[in-house]
Amino acid sequence: MAGLFAVFLAVVLGCALVSRFGNLISLQPRWAAALVIFGSGTALGIGLTSILFVLGLLLIPGSRGLAMWVEIGALGWISYDLFRRRNSTPPTEKPRPFPGNMILMAALVLSLALAIGAMSGSWEANPQGGWDAWAIWNLRARFLTAGGSLAHRAWSPLLGYTHPEYPLLTSAFIARAWTYSHSMSAAVPIAVSCFFFLALISLAVGGVAAWHSRSLGLLLGLSLVATPTLAHVVSDQYADIPLACYFAGALVLTLLDRPLLAGLLAGLAAWTKDEGLLFAVVFLAAAAVFRRPQLTGLLAGTALGGATAVFFKAILARGTASLLNASLPSLAQHLSDPARYRQVVGAMGAEFTNMTAGWYHPILPALALAIALRFEIQRRRDVLFCCIVALFLFTGYFFVYIITPNDLTWQLQTSLSRLYVQFWPVFLLTIWTALRAPETTAIVQAQVLKARKKA
Amino acid sequence: MSKVETPRIEYPLATNVGVLLAAALALWGVVEYFGFESSYQKQYHDPYLIAAQAARLENFREAVSSDAVLGYLTDATPGSVTADSMFLAAQYTLAPRLLQKDASHQQVLGNFTRQADFAAIGTQYGLILERDFGNGVVLYRGEPH
Questions:
Q1: Interface contact B20-A100, CB threshold 8 A
Q2: N or C: which end of chain A has fewer CB within 10 A?
Q3: Closest approach of chain B CAs to the CA of A448, in angstroms?
Q4: Is B86 domain-assigned?
């Protein structure tokens, strides 16, 4: 229970931070604002406290509980400040919602209940999670929990078989909760995975609802919950769900014109996995073209997580070989080998078709909406921004496979499905930015009623 | 007599049908996922026996200091899924102790799939059997290179 308290503390602290400084309370409708606050607060709280924990390990290795008191103090101060300002929230505007929104909300709640019910069975059967959870992320959390010089083993070159060069966000956060609770409960990584999944859905639903259309937001959430491969990875406790959450969160908050917060999440993606570094670069490059007024805020936000990830890679884990360095000797040969291109294209196509469960494919809801609602071009820059990020991210993944020094067949078999999990929310969000909102298809007819006025 | 104008809002059939169809498809997807996940967990209940490793290696864990760097010896076929999962599961269970896949350490974990003459196996690598913990788990003592 104490471990779960440490997880909740980070989530509440993150929510308090974004409520106070994120300028999200003004979003409409109120329920969308609440979802965006929960989603971004969860992602930010977990990310920031993981950085704070690692800083504490490196700078003050003897005082392991100090970071917790810093967090509690910060939460107390922000909560007091929020309480003082509680009357400054704007009133709710009168919306003209799509009449099916209540049905969509009920369907989303039912979907989440079903999905989490299925996951709970999985957590009971395999509390240690999938292969990467116990062999990489939670293993490194165990080293960090040991503290002192033993914590440095989390990035020791002697761990070469289990990627000591990977960034530490999830491992450090789990270690933080284990350290505070003085126990290594399996409930902590399970809760982390679940919170990131809920944060991803909340950001998608609330973000699109506040940005463009309530019904489209709810439908995006439904479509994400109904992605079998994505939901399956939640119970595996892999870092791909946190990464997907940071990707989608950064895009949604950019659309909502909250550049600092968007940048923070993009930076934390880099602190989560190597693919996050690629995302941060692609995201900032696309922003430099399509979101120039937001670029300063985005850069400032990205600096924290990005600098932490670069510091980790360049200083702490410098003795470990990165995929890029290892691929240099065979780079020219791999790039000029057409067989590798054919194999990667074939595997990517096959993976897309394998995203099914039974006869269901997660692209079906998007197809139904595209046919029924069609696309609009009014928000062209937003659509282009998301398209460019999605396209270059996917292209980056493609070329990582082309140049990989590992056996290509093995690499594709063991990682491609998880790359699709990271990419899928970005892909759906890109489609959703271009969809016409159901609300805009409304036909308003003036109805003349004759009412008798009683004398 | 007075006139009160209230706007009546209607949505095209395509919009209503499309939105409801997308929601219904998504619900179908969640139900399919529920079925898939349930059958998957029945089929793959702790496939790498991670939970069992904690009990199997518990006494070994207590016998070795937490800052130890240990060698590793096994009879599992090198490069096989069994060998990799046994090694990584042992590393996960024994962390923060570090495991190295060679026998040139002062302390070496013997992690075997079946009963054998563990002392004789150790001798082949210049190791002395220090303690047999049962279930194929042994501690060897050797000379660091």
A1: yes
A2: C
A3: 5
A4: yes
B115 assigned to some structural domain: yes
Which residue type occupies B36? F
Same domain, yes or no: B89 and B26: no
Burial B77-92 (b: 16+ CB within 10 A, else e): eeeeeebbbbbbbbbb
Is residue B3 in a domain?
Answer: no
Interface with B, mutate which of A112, A139, A143, A452 (most B CBs under 10 A): A139
Rounded to an integer, what distance in angstroms lies between the CA atom of residue A436 and that of residue A268?
Answer: 31
Full residue range of the structural domain in which residue B37 is found: 12-45
- Here the tokens at position A319 are 């003795």
Record: contact B29-A357, CB cut-off 8 A = yes
Distance, CA of A259 to CA of A275 (rounded, Å): 21
Q: Please state, in angstroms and rounded to a whole number, the distance separating the CA atoms of residues A248 and A263.
A: 12
- The answer, for B52 touching chain A at a CB cutoff of 8 Å, is no
The conformational region for residue A185 under phi > 0 = left, psi -120 to 50 = alpha, else beta, is beta
Write out chain A's pLDDT in tens, 455 residues: 789 999 999 999 999 999 999 999 999 999 999 999 999 999 999 999 999 999 999 998 877 778 888 999 999 999 999 988 876 555 555 556 788 899 999 999 999 999 999 999 999 999 999 999 999 999 999 999 998 899 999 999 988 788 899 999 999 999 999 999 999 999 999 999 999 999 999 999 999 999 999 999 999 999 999 999 999 999 999 999 999 999 999 999 999 999 999 999 999 999 999 999 999 999 999 999 999 999 999 999 999 999 999 999 999 998 777 788 888 899 999 999 999 999 999 999 999 999 999 999 999 999 999 999 999 988 899 999 999 999 999 999 999 999 999 999 999 999 999 999 999 999 999 999 999 999 988 887 765 555 555 54
Task: Indicate if B25 and B93 belong to the same structural domain.
Answer: no
For the entire predicted model, the pTM comes to 0.94
Facing residue for A444 by CB, picked from B2, B7, B50: B7
Hey, CA dihedral for A41, A118, A226, A215, is it positive or negative? negative
Residues B19 and B80 grouped into a single domain: no
Domains held by chain B: number: 2
B112 shares a domain with B73: yes
User: According to the 3-state scheme, what is the secondary structure of B41-62?
Assistant: HHHCCCCCCHHHHHHHCHHHHH
Q: How far apart are the first and last CA of chain B?
A: 105
All residues of chain A having their beta carbon less than 8 Å from the beta carbon of residue B11 are 98-99, 438, 441-443
- Do B82 and B96 share a domain, yes or no? yes
CB count within 10 Å of CB A12 equals: 17
Sole residue written with tokens 């070795």: B64
B98 to A156: CB separation less than 8 angstroms, yes or no: yes
Residues of B in contact with A139 (CB under 8 A): 88, 91-92, 95
**Whole-number CA gyration radius for chain B:** 29
ipTM of the complex: 0.92
